[in-house]
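Duplicate of earlier report; Oxidoreductase family, NAD-binding Rossmann fold input re-posted below.
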Amino acid sequence: MKKVKIAVVGAGSRGMYAYAPYLLDNPELGEIVAIAEPIDEKRDLFKNKYNLDSKNIFNSWQDLLANDKIADAIIIANNDDSHFEPAKLALEKGYHVLLEKPMSNDLNKVISLGELAKQYNNQVFMVCHVLRYTPFFNELKKIVESKELGELISIQHNENIGYWHFAHSYVRGNWRNSIETSPLILAKSCHDLDILLWLVDSPGEYISSFGNLSHLTSASFKTSMKDHCVKCDLQETCPYSAVKIYLEEDKIVRSLNAVHPHPTKYNLKKALQNGPYGRCVYKCDNNVVDHMVNIIEFKNKVTATFNLSAFTQECSRTIKLMFSHGEVGGNFTQNIIDIHKFGTNTHTIINPKLNQSGHGGGDYSLIKDFISSISSNDGELKTTAIKSVQSHVMAFAAEYSRISHKVINLSDFYNDIKENINKL
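Output:
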C-alpha cells in the first residue's frame, strides 16, 4: 500500500486531534507533512506534535496552496465559512480532499462543491460525515437492510447536545452566531440528517421545522450576575458557570484546547478572565436556536422526527427505529442497541465493538477509509461530496422552514438554488 502524504488546513480540534493522530498510530500508512494555521500557538503545537519540516509551515491556506503540490491529499478543517475556496483550489491542484462538515455555510457553494466533485471524479473528495463510519450506526444499517423486522416505517432521532457543550460551542464558542458561521442545524446536525438519509436510503421529500432561542439570551440575565463568570457570585449555583465547566468539572480535552492551546490550570484561569469562553452565557452575541424539532417525509414515505436541544444532561444521540414487525432503540453514547421483534417477549441487546477514537469510533474509521481509497483507488466510499450535498440542502431547508413557518418541498428548494447558480 502506498504511503500517503497529507497536508492539513486548520490546527483546531478536528484538524489537530480528530484525524491527524491516526497517522501517528499508523505511520506505515502515511504521514502529515504540512500545516496551515493562522494562530501562532496552535501552529507551533501542531508542528511539534507532527514533527514537520519548517518549510512546510504556513500561516494560511492561501500560502500553502500558492506552492506547487506538496502532498497527495489535504484535510480541510478550518472555519465553516472558509471551506469552499481551499477545497476548490486543492482539487484544481490535484489533491485528494477530506473536507470537514459542513461543506460550506453558503448553500450555493455547497452545490458548487458537489459539481466540482463530479468534475474531478478521479480524485477522492470525502466529507467528514463520521457517523456513517461508527460501529453503532453501521449496526443499525445492517438491521434495516436485513428486513428481519420488516419494512422501516418511521424514525425518532434526538441530538441531545448537553447544556455545557451547547454553552461551550454555541453560546461562547465559534458556532454561536449564524451570521458569522452557520445555523445550528447545519453546524451541529448536518451529519444527523446525513445518517437519516443513509438509514432510510431514500431522498428527503418534505421538511417542516420549528425552534427558537428561548433561554440563553440577555432576557435571562439577572442583576446579580456579572458579564464574566470569574467575577460572578453565582458560580456555585449556575450550571453554565465557566469556572465550573472548565476548572472544576472533568470535560473532554478538545473543549479545553479550544479555550487555550496549552490548557493548564493557570492558562485556563487567565483565558477565562477576559476571553470569550469566560463570558456569562446570558451576555454573549449568540443567535443560534437552543432547541429545534424537524419533521421529515422521505420519497419512500418513511417519516422521521429529528429533535435537537441544548437542555440535556448528556451529550448523546438517541434513536428509535420503528418497523412493520419490530422496533429498535439505541443510545449512541452508551453504545447500546435494543432490538424487540413483535410477538416475542425477548429483547436482543447489542454493544457494537468500538475503536478508541472520537465520535464513537467514527473518526479513525473515516480517515482510514480516506487513506485506503487514495492508496488502492477502488471501492465505494460511504461518504463523498456528491452524497453530502443532499443532507446540506436539507439543513438549509430546515432553517428556512423554521424562519418562514412553511413546509418545504426539498426538490423544489434544491432546483431553485441550482437555477440561481446557473444564472451567476
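The CA atoms of residues 268 and 286 lie 22 Å apart.

Merging into the original ticket.
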